[in-house]
Amino acid sequence: MKTMCNECRYTFALKEESIETECVDNDRKIERRLFKCPNCGHKYTILISDPQMRDMINQRAVIRDRIRILREHNFTGDELAEQDEDLKNEIWERAQQLKEEYEKGSFTE
Ligand SMILES: [Zn+2]
Asked: What spacing in Å lies between the alpha carbon of 36 and ligand 1's midpoint?
């Protein structure tokens, strides 16, 4: 994935290993996944998550695995697909909330 830094216009390939996780709130166990521009060090947030959200993300992985297995055996897996869709929406909403809460101003360095 090629990405361009909005700050310095440097273009670079984003690699899995350059994604870092940092704790933003010890009490609530809020984590931020981020990467830095290799040129100017500007930080970019990928995702802010709380334990509840990480749970939902894990649940989705399990559900999608089950759907895959069902479909391999010619079942539709529709019910599970619905659950998956619900979880996806919940995760998205949670992500927006956390972003609002934790990304106000403090993030630009
Ligand atoms: Zn930069």
From this structure: 8
Chain-centroid distance, C-alpha 71: 26
Residue 98 — φ and ψ, nearest 5°? -65, -35
How far, in Å, from the CA of 104 to the mean position of ligand 1? 20
Q: Per residue in 50-81, pLDDT tens?
A: 999 999 999 999 999 999 999 999 999 999 99
Q: What is the C-alpha to C-alpha distance for residues 85 and 9, in angstroms, rounded to an integer?
A: 36
Query: Residue 9: inside a domain, yes or no?
Result: yes
What is the pTM assigned to this prediction?
0.76
**Distance between Cα 3 and ligand 1 center (Å):** 10
* 108 occurs within a structural domain: no
Range of the domain at 40: 2-103
Q: Where are the alpha helices (DSSP H) in the chain?
A: 51-72, 78-102
